[in-house]
Structures are given as C-alpha cells and as structure tokens.
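Task: sequence design from structure.
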C-alpha cells in the first residue's frame, strides 16, 4: 500500500465510520473502483487496520470526554449523589446496546464477510442502506421524536443494539442503523446520534484492540505509514462527529435524507461501474 492509498483510506475511514454511509461498504467497493491492488493478507495490512480503528476510537473519546469522565466518576463513586444514578444507568444502557453486536460479531462476522463482502453485493447493500435511512425517517413515531436519553428504557437499548448488528453486512451503516433505531424508539435526532456515537466507542475500540494479540503473535509492527494514517483517521473522525452533532441538533426533520440520497447515488453508480466497466 502506497502512502497516498493509506492516507485516502484513512480519510475515508474517518468520515464513513461516523457518517451513516457504511465504512465497510466503502472499504469493499472503493479499492476496486480505484483499481488498487491491495493485499489484505500482507503483514503490513493488519497493523494498518488496527491503527485506523484506534485513531477513530480516540477521536470519539476526545469529543465525548465529558460523558466518559462522568461515567468513570460514577463507577468509582466520585460523582455527585444526585447525578450518579443517572450516569450509571446510561452506562448500563451503553453496555446493553453493545451486547447484541458483540455476540453476533464473534459468531457471524466471517459468515457475513464471506457471503456479502464482494464489491457488487456491497454496492447493492449501500442502496439498501439508503432505503433504511429514508424510510426510517418516515416510520418515526408521530410526534414522539423528542425523547432524551434519560427516558430510554432497557428494551430500547436492546432494540438499538439489534439495529447496530445489521452493520455486519458490508454496505449497511452502523451509525445509520443505530440512529434509525433511536428514532424509531422516539429519540430526538441529536440524542439518537449521541447514543449512536457513545455505543460506537467500545465497538470500534474493541475491534482494534482485539487484533493486537494477532498482530503481536504474527510478528507484525506499526510502521510510520500506519501511524500517519491513524492520525489522519483520528482527526477526520473528530471533525466528522463535531459536524454531525451540530447538524443533527439543527435538523430534526428528514435529517437523514441527504445521506440516503448519497447512498442511493453512490451505490447505483458503483454497481453500474463494477458490472459493466471495471
């Protein structure tokens, strides 16, 4: 992988991991469209992926540092008594919402990657992801998209966690699916996005950390290209989440529509190019 390919991939990772447009779908489709001959089994590729995930997770921790510090203080009993119960409950909701993706990820990830991890199928599922975003907006409970995280129930967390699990399919966005799940549970767009990014942190961080033992066992190393790409992914991810949180705060009506149109357009164009040109 060249430096240019690494930087482009890192930039796309930082954007598509958090925008509701599927980072995995783009990772499967774009190398083929660009004509990149990337060996994903090369010893340098795993360290590269690990650093990208750690960069993205670091960006989420940096942006939501107040939330995570508050949760940590509550766990150690340092938080104010009138706030501790609410913080511990939010932490519990994050854990519950993470469980479905962890279980299904361990048991079915390779199956999903093998069945759906081809560029043509990923392009098709990007179109499906557009439909998920578009119709998710229109299936919101009428007049109930105003709930805050404090009013979330445990079954809402499980429900959103199950939506998150659909992102195991390349082309289905993790953030998009969890936001739609939050909207259908009655959350405001901003609150749905905030919860989506909070539960993304342990998922993305865990995905990177779990690969470290494999990396060390295989004798791999983190080179300067990987570290540079990690910084680019982290900075891009931080800017992405900052933009999205402001966007969803200001747009509570059909806020996911632009991303739906993008997925439809990119998925359709990619599908045509992969089938008839590339």
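Answer:
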């Amino acid at each position: 992988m060249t430096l240019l390919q690494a930087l482009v991939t890192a930039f796309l990772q930082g954007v598509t991991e958090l925008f509701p447009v599927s980072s995995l779908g783009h990772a499967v489709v774009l190398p083929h469209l660009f004509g990149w001959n990337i060996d994903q089994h090369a010893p340098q590729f795993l360290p590269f992926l690990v650093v990208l995930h750690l960069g993205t997770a670091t960006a989420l921790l940096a942006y939501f540092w107040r939330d995570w510090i508050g949760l940590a203080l509550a766990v150690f009993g340092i938080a104010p008594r009138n706030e501790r119960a609410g913080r511990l409950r939010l932490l519990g909701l994050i854990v519950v919402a993470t469980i479905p993706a962890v279980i299904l990820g361990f048991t079915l990830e390779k199956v999903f990657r093998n069945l759906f991890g081809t560029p043509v199928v990923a392009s098709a599922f990007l179109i499906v992801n557009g439909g998920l975003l578009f119709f998710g907006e229109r299936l919101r409970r009428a007049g109930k998209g105003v709930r805050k995280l404090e009013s979330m129930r445990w079954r809402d967390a499980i429900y959103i966690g199950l939506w998150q699990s659909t992102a195991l399919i390349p082309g289905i966005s993790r953030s998009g699916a969890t936001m739609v799940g939050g909207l259908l549970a009655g959350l405001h767009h901003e609150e749905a996005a905030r919860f989506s990014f909070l539960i993304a942190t342990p998922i993305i961080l865990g995905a990177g950390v779990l690969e470290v033992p494999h990396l060390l066992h295989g004798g791999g190393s983190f080179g300067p290209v990987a570290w540079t790409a990690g910084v680019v992914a982290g900075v891009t991810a931080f800017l992405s989440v900052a933009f999205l949180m402001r966007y969803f705060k200001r747009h509570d009506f059909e806020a996911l529509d632009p991303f739906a149109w993008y997925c439809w357009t990119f998925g359709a164009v990619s599908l045509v190019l992969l089938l008839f040109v590339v």
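The radius of gyration is 19 Å.
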